[in-house]
Design brief:
mainly alpha, single chain, globular, 14 helices
């Protein structure tokens, strides 16, 4: 019942997202436009302008929320999230390369390069820490991810500094926004996000066993290597598609798991199930707040989520005593 209540909240936020903008439409007007009984102007605004943006927000939020739960469960690190593990930086670097070297200018082309960058960054960070079995492994993973993010960010900055055409295209993507992405971004991201969520949801029991430790999980019959491999593939699919479609939207994968864990407890099965509507709700709220706060201009969703996520990260760092 709680999960269905979250879905209802997401549906209400979806209606509000379709109503709010430079031209506000009443909720009954939105409903009439959705059912084909509204005016021609409102129907065009709802279906052609706001629906792809709102649906993309739901898809990206669900992907990042689930990826955050999987990442924290795999690493047993409450501060882990896809951005801190270098996945977003790898995707960003690959997108810049696609624009600068190969002349790609559309989102459907970005997806493949973003996936390649996510894979290489994730494998590099994992390779730097996989042989460490001490208690400091999880700290090393975050530090390796931060180092990889800094290195890739520096190279990305150099490329965009000397290629003004690439910078003009990249700066609209890197801020992390849902505006002007179009239906092509949504259609490109949905298959990979669906596959990533389908791989992640059945991992709940295995991730619960993995939380007991590598040795205890193996003693219970858990194939830890296979679980980590499937989890890593799901994170790459989810983050690669979300980052390619909307740009790097930070902190969603950090805030959602912790908010759910405070309400639901540590059971990963419930965390994964609730992360789908909770992540979608967070991104929709951020997008709505960005549209309302600076009307008639907008604040991109990635900036708003940073305002939400940064204080949470600071609180978590100060809360940990060990």
């Amino acid at each position: 019942m709680g999960w269905f209540a979250c879905v209802v909240v997401v549906a209400l936020l979806l209606m509000v997202s379709l109503a709010v903008g430079s031209r506000t439409i009443p909720l009954d007007g939105v409903w009439q436009a959705l059912t084909g009984h509204g005016s021609a102007a409102e129907t065009v605004i709802v279906w052609q302008l706001r629906m792809p943006r709102t649906a993309l927000g739901c898809v990206v939020g669900a992907a990042l929320g689930v990826a955050g739960v999987v990442m924290q469960s795999l690493t047993r690190n409450p501060l882990a999230e896809p951005g801190l593990a270098g996945v977003n930086a790898g995707a960003s670097f690959a997108v810049v390369m696609a624009i600068s070297v190969f002349g790609v200018r559309n989102t459907s082309g970005y997806v493949w390069f973003a996936f390649a960058g996510s894979v290489l960054a994730a494998l590099a960070v994992h390779g730097l820490t996989r042989r460490n079995t001490s208690a400091g492994q999880h700290t090393r993973l975050v530090l390796a991810g931060a180092a990889a993010s800094a290195t890739l960010g520096a190279v990305t900055g150099i490329l965009t500094m000397f290629d003004t055409d690439a910078f003009d295209s990249y700066r609209f993507w890197v801020v992390g926004a849902l505006e002007d992405r179009g239906a092509s971004a949504l259609l490109a991201a949905v298959p990979f996000v669906t596959l990533g969520i389908a791989l992640a949801l059945p991992l709940g029991p295995a991730l619960n066993a993995l939380a007991l430790g590598e040795e205890q999980g193996a003693a219970l019959g858990l194939r830890t290597g296979a679980v980590r491999a499937v989890g890593l593939v799901s994170v790459i699919l989810l983050c690669g598609a979300a980052t390619a479609a909307a740009g790097p939207i930070a902190f969603v994968g950090l805030v959602v798991p912790h908010a759910l864990r405070m309400m639901l407890g540590p059971d990963v099965r419930w965390l994964l199930a609730y992360a789908v509507p909770a992540g979608a709700a967070l991104v929709l709220v951020s997008d709505i707040v960005g549209r309302v706060a600076a009307r008639p201009d907008e604040i991109e969703a990635g900036i708003v989520t940073a305002f939400f996520g940064a204080p949470v990260l600071i609180w978590l760092v100060n809360r940990r005593r060990a």
